[in-house]
Give the backbone structure.
Amino acid sequence: VQLVESGGGSVQTGGSLTLSCSVSGYSRPDLSVAWFRQAPGKEREGVARLNFGGSGRIFADDVKGRFYITDKRERNVVDLQMRGLKPTDTGLYYCAAAPPWNRPLSPSEFADWGQGTQVTVS
């Protein structure tokens, strides 16, 4: 099982970034894949979750209308498209996964994690 994030960086307020998570090593097709973030001194919080290869997405309230999560199943990739970025979006962004579909957007629900990619908005 391997989750590898990419695409982080530094942007100005109002800018856009797309994060990608490469998902590999799972034998079950019904995965929940989610993005979480953690700012310095704060707890890890959920950003968005989708049913990998299926339908159904959920978003944290403060990113609704600005972030979108999508998958490219043929490439085993889950993207987090972020626009209208704010300084409060700054943090280390993690990809996480676990079966089955429709897991709640809570860190305790996810067994497997990537190493994270840094997003800084100034």
